[in-house]
Design brief:
The protein is α/β, with parallel strands linked by helices and 1149 residues long. Helices cover 23% and strands 18% of the residues. The strands form eight sheets. It has a 22-stranded mixed β-sheet, sandwiched between helices. Strands 2-1-3-4-5 form a five-stranded parallel β-sheet. A hairpin with a 7-residue loop joins β40 and β41. α2 runs parallel beside α3, α3 crosses α6 and α6 crosses α23. The longest helix has 18 residues. This is ADP-ribosyl cyclase/cyclic ADP-ribose hydrolase. It catalyses: NAD(+) + H2O = ADP-D-ribose + nicotinamide + H(+). GO terms for molecular function: ADP binding; NAD+ nucleosidase activity, cyclic ADP-ribose generating. Its EC number is 3.2.2.6. InterPro entries: Apaf_helical, C-JID, Disease_R_plants, LRR_dom_sf, NB-ARC, P-loop_NTPase, TIR_dom, Toll_tir_struct_dom_sf.
């Protein structure tokens, strides 16, 4: 028997992504586009239900290319990261990988620097994922691998979609890159197809609809073991299998219920098959009466006979609600426990009539291939397999299409298959066309226009955007958007997570409908010569003109005159990015005219060559105006009323100096004026833009000030890089995001305290900003305050009220000498950055009460001499380059033992650090490591780096009782070394940097542990290191000591572990991808750490001594204060790089 599992479906491209964020939007479109061009792309939902997740690893191994789509929520998913690790392994032809995988990173609205420094949600989610209690087992071993995988991604050429980028263009770029990459990869299969092998039509073929049937049976409760009447609507597009499933269901119902009837409606007989005909059929078939009495209400006559009988009724292919509403609407003739199924291609017909609804899904790829193979009657091998996938993909899971394509190709050779595949998008199968056409023919004229408009212009666009452009009625009307809803109910379009989609079969039919008309209504052109001259001009509704293949030419002034129905006009160059220096290939020597009372709703013209739009252009219907990189000076030179205008993009129109023509646009939502470098002021009339929520003025370098107006709805105001803006006025009290970075303002107005909804205030690089108002405490919603590189800022206000929402405060590069002594108002801070400040000498404010502060950055504070009191729950202290720092105090209190949080203390290049401070640092490391041993009874063997530090020095501390010169430390441990109260190990490495300048801004000290006398896999983890954002070269001077404490949890293979007594520790310095030869490991040390006896106090007393490295005696840490033999050298910051990168999510510079 041939089953679906016999069909070998190996993906060419594996897509790794965060499902809840992107599955129904970007990934759905990418998946569709790749398959549309014949690329077999695989996502996890393509896997057959019930299969183990580990099967996805096999898919990665079988693939040729993997797309790693990184987004802000990517690191929420443990599985995303595990897939990424597998992809990295296969990219080096790891074990089990059939091909050397090509990994292409894709940054979806995510900056590369965000991943590099684990910034924002990306870093926070990774941190939270590691901290999850359920991830305790093996989590640090994994996070090292996750880090390596992320570093591997960062080392590759990537495709980046900016926050404001166009998804459609970006998707095309990805597809082009993938096609090009596949063309350069040597195929794994042979190029010559094997001869066809035909199967008998009588072969036993599994039914691919079984899964769908089971889902439907659950909704209907086909066992009929209750007394609830169930009426289920079965809905879906033509050909999806509604009737097939209904017939299968009817067979099962007949075995449970005695009185059953299957009634099929014929669309061409809808007038004859009215409610009277239906009632008669029901009575005759359910009561087995051959000639029902001719009456107007047979059900009423026979109601008493029916009410005591359970019935099963299937009403198939219902097209008129009136046929069934009167019948099903009153249930006084239906006995409880009956089952009724209604199938229809119009979901709206079932409203108010059914108790449940089942939308029939398309077949998955595997089932689709099996159905297609069964109809084509051939073995899918060689080129036939590849071509079959493309046919199945185009069919989109529609069984009718799969059957018809299979029948078309039965007995044909591979050349015929390839030829037919090339014509699929232009020429549909007659049977499929007839089935789909019947749905189209039932539409009214407005619905037909909306359907064809979506097909030609708005596939994969935002739902609310498409609705706005399609609405043919007053938005306030009850009928507003009715055509759109009707099309969705009839399954002629689909709304998928806010995007409007259309099945490929329907798209092909739509193109055929337009092409079949003599007067074309929708034009996709690549040459102006194809524009209609006279006949048919009044029928044109939309034009898309791609100038990429055109030569430069003048456009006639009257080219659009006569196009009274023109709604959509787009002129662009598909091969040339908008920011390129290439000019528009269309010139307007005589200007341009549009029809009087034009119907234009959408006008998109990249690099529009005119200085303004035609003066007689009536914007009454205009909804979306996009003229980026244009030559316009003003949109119109006089006032125009644009009551429906919602979106305007005039970005990078460097000559624009007036907004005159846009001032009467009361419904405008978004206005993008980025890069309009000639714009000097905003008019007062903008206050009438009552609905404007987004205003982007980034890079308007001539803008001098804002008007004194109030914009009631404005939420986002971007003034970044407005380098001549000297004063700021609060123009909206509803602001949530305010960007003033790079302006010349010297202060903020008192009214800033009224912005109670403000979440983000960005004041970076405001060179003249000298003071901040005392009213900052009034900003109750403020979460991020960024003041980086405000050189004139010398004081931070004394905040009297608690700012409970504030989490991030960036003061790096300012001239603030000290913070207010009373830090009470900022006690909820999580990240505080004071880096690159030469005025700070000590931190006098009371951080002992800042219980929430986790990240404190003090890099390159060259005059900082002391850190007297640190926050009690600090996780990351980075004091790299604090060349005058001498003293460091331990936190006042320690975290509770339940907090399993990694901590790292970085003191690289702190050459003045006193010995007592180094002792204090080591003491804190020891104490905290003791508190973090609570989960030692975990059943996995995991190295878990919990706390580390590093600072200048060249000697291993004496309490490391196993030491060696060089990078290899062999150990022979006693037989019972892991018995008793073992809680972990301590490692120490001395690295000579010799002024090494890091070029990749990443450095890791890596340890590999091998058990040489038993068969256990080597374990690798990071002892310390750093990963810095940006391009700045990171230099380490002299030798540094890295110290880390790592818990050693119980053993996965505990039967073998007691005999693992011969151990070799190997240390090396890497840049994340390869070893750094210039950085040498000079010395290394190791010590087992045991929990103190209960009778001991927390002093960690022990008799530290350096044992012969062949011995394995127990040793414990001893506090620096108690140990006269405390390190005589300065231990360097052993930052566990993986965790250092995680906690660096607060390193926004």
């Amino acid at each position: 028997m041939v089953t679906a599992s016999d069909v070998k479906v190996g993906p060419e491209v594996f897509i790794n992504f965060r499902g809840v964020e992107l599955r129904k939007t970007f990934i759905s479109h990418l998946h569709t586009k790749l398959r549309r061009v014949g690329i077999n792309a695989f996502i996890d939902s393509d896997e057959a239900p019930g299969r183990e997740l580990q099967n996805l690893f096999k898919r990665i191994e079988d693939s040729k290319i993997a797309l790693a789509v990184l987004s802000s929520r990517y690191t929420e998913s443990h599985w995303c990261l595990q897939e990424l690790v597998k992809m990295m392994e296969c990219s080096t032809k790891g074990e089990g990988c059939n091909n050397k995988l090509l990994v292409i990173p894709i940054f979806y609205k995510l900056k590369i620097s965000t991943v590099a420094e684990l910034d924002g949600d990306f870093g926070r989610n990774l941190w939270d994922l590691w901290r999850l209690p359920g991830r305790g087992r093996d989590r640090d071993n994994r996070i090292v691998k996750w880090n390596e995988a992320l570093q591997d991604v960062l080392s590759r050429n990537a495709l980046v979609l900016p926050e404001t980028g166009k998804e459609d263009d970006f998707l095309s770029t990805i597809v082009a890159h993938v096609k090009n990459a596949l063309s350069q990869i040597t195929p794994q299969r042979g190029q010559n197809p094997k001869p066809q092998k035909f199967l008998s039509r009588a072969s036993n073929i599994t039914e691919p609809e079984d899964q769908r049937l089971k889902q439907l049976e659950v909704k209907l409760n086909v066992e009929c073991n209750d007394n609830e009447t169930r009426i289920v609507g079965v809905v879906g597009m033509p050909g999806i299998g509604k009737t097939y499933l209904a017939r299968k269901l009817f067979v099962k119902l007949k075995n449970k219920i005695n009185h059953c009837v299957f009634i099929e409606f014929e669309r061409e007989k809808s007038e004859e098959q009215g409610s009277e005909w239906l009632e008669k059929r029901l009575v005759e078939d359910l009561l087995d009466i051959k000639n029902c009495i001719d009456t107007n209400a047979p059900l009423e006559v026979w109601k008493d006979s029916l009410i005591d009988k359970k019935v099963a009724i299937v009403l198939d292919n219902v097209s008129e609600k009136k046929h069934i509403e009167q019948l099903i609407g009153r249930c006084d003739w239906i006995k409880k426990g009956s089952r009724i199924v209604i199938t229809t291609r119009d979901k709206s017909l079932t409203e108010g009539l059914v108790s449940d609804l089942y939308e029939v899904p398309g077949l998955n790829e595997r089932d689709g291939l099996e159905l297609f193979r069964a109809q084509a009657c051939c073995i899918l091998d060689g080129n036939f397999m590849e071509l079959s996938r493309k046919f199945v993909d185009y069919a989109g899971g529609n069984p009718l299409a799969l059957e018809q394509f299979g029948k078309e190709l039965r007995g044909k050779d591979v050349v015929h298959w390839e030829t037919r595949l090339g014509t699929l998008a232009q020429c549909s199968n007659p049977t499929i066309r007839e089935k789909l056409r019947s749905s189209y023919d039932e539409l009214n004229e407005q619905q037909k226009d909306a359907f064809l408009d979506i097909a030609y212009f708005f596939r994969s666009q935002d739902e609310s955007y498409v609705r706005s452009l399609l609405d043919s009625y007053d938005p306030e009307s009850a009928e507003s958007g009715q055509e759109f809803r009707d099309l969705a109910d009839k399954f002629l379009i689909d709304v998928c997570d806010g995007r409007v989609e259309m099945h490929d079969l329907l798209f092909t039919m739509a193109k055929e409908l337009v092409e079949a008309t003599v007067e074309k209504s929708r034009l996709l052109l690549s040459n102006c010569a194809d524009l209609p001259n006279k006949e048919g001009r009044d029928k044109v509704r939309g034009i898309v003109l791609d100038m990429s293949k055109m030569e430069e030419m003048p456009l006639k002034k009257e080219v659009f005159v006569g196009m009274s129905s023109l709604r959509y006009l787009k002129v662009y160059n598909s091969l040339c990015p908008p920011h390129s220096e290439t000019e528009c290939k269309l010139n307007l020597p005589d200007g341009l005219e549009f029809p009087k009372d034009n119907a234009v709703r959408y006008l998109h013209w990249v690099k529009f060559p005119g200085t303004e739009l035609p003066s007689d252009f009536d914007p009454n219907n205009l909804i979306d105006l996009r003229l980026p990189y244009s030559n316009i000076i003003t949109v119109w030179s006089r006032y125009k009323v644009a009551p429906n205008l919602k979106w305007v993009d005039l970005s990078h129109s460097s000559n624009l100096n007036s907004l005159m023509g846009l001032l009467i646009a009361p419904n405008l939502l978004r206005l993008n004026l980025e890069g309009c470098t000639s714009l000097k002021e905003l008019p007062d009339e903008m206050k009438y833009m009552m609905n404007l929520v987004f205003l982007n003025l980034r890079g308007c370098t001539s803008l001098l000030s804002l008007p004194k107006i109030t914009m009631e709805s404005l939420k986002t105001l971007i003034l970044s890089g407005c380098s001549k803006l000297q004063t700021f006025e609060v123009i909206s009290e509803r602001l949530e995001s305010l960007y003033l970075n790079g302006t010349l303002i010297n202060g903020l107005p008192p009214a800033i305290g009224n912005l109670h909804r403000l979440i983000l205030l960005n004041l970076k690089d405001c060179k003249n900003l000298a003071t901040l108002p005392d009213c900052l405490g009034e900003l109750k919603s403020l979460q991020e305050l960024k003041l980086s590189r405000c050189l004139e800022l010398k004081f931070f206000p004394d905040v009297k009220k608690k700012v409970e929402s504030l989490r991030v405060l960036l003061l790096d590069g300012t001239s603030i000498a000290e913070m207010p002594c009373n830090i009470f108002g900022l006690s909820f801070l999580r990240r505080l950055c004071l880096s690159r400040n030469d005025n700070i000498r000590t931190l006098r404010f009371d951080m002992g009460q800042m219980f929430h502060l986790k990240w404190l950055e003090l890099k390159y504070c060259k005059n900082l001499t002391s850190l007297p009191i640190l926050p009690p729950n600090l996780q990351c202290l980075n004091a790299h380059g604090c060349t005058s720092l001498r003293t460091v105090a331990s936190p006042q209190t320690l975290p509770t033992p339940t907090e399993q949080i990694h901590s790292t203390f970085v003191f690289t290049n702190c050459h003045e650090l006193e010995q007592v401070s180094k002792n204090a640092i080591i003491s804190y490391v020891q104490k905290k490591s003791k508190l973090m041993s609570a989960d030692r009874y975990n059943q996995d063997f995991v190295f878990k780096s919990l706390i580390g530090t590093c600072f200048p020095g060249c000697e291993i501390p004496a309490w490391f009782n196993h030491q060696a010169l060089g990078s290899i430390l062999p150990l022979e441990l006693p037989q019972d070394w892991n018995a008793g109260r073992l809680i972990g190990i301590a490692l120490c490495v001395v690295v000579s940097f010799n002024g090494y300048k890091d070029q990749s801004n990443s450095l890791q000290v890596k340890c590999t542990c091998e058990f040489t006398n038993v068969s256990l896999s080597p374990e690798s983890f990071i002892v310390g290191g750093f990963s810095e954002p940006g391009d700045e070269t990171h230099t380490l001077e002299a030798d540094h000591i890295f110290i880390c404490y790592t818990t050693l949890l119980n053993i996965k293979k505990h039967q073998q572990f007691p005999s693992a007594t011969e151990v070799s520790l190997g240390f090396q310095v890497t840049n994340g991808t390869s070893e750094v030869a210039k950085c040498k490991v000079m010395k290394c040390g190791f010590s087992l750490v045991y929990e103190p006896d209960e009778v001991e106090n927390s002093s960690w007393k022990a008799t530290p001594r350096i044992e012969d490295k062949r011995q394995g005696r127990r040793s414990s840490f001893r506090t620096a204060e108690e140990d006269d033999d405390c390190p005589i050298a300065t231990p360097t910051t052993a930052t566990y790089n993986s965790f250092n990168r995680i906690v660096s999510y607060f390193k926004k510079v």
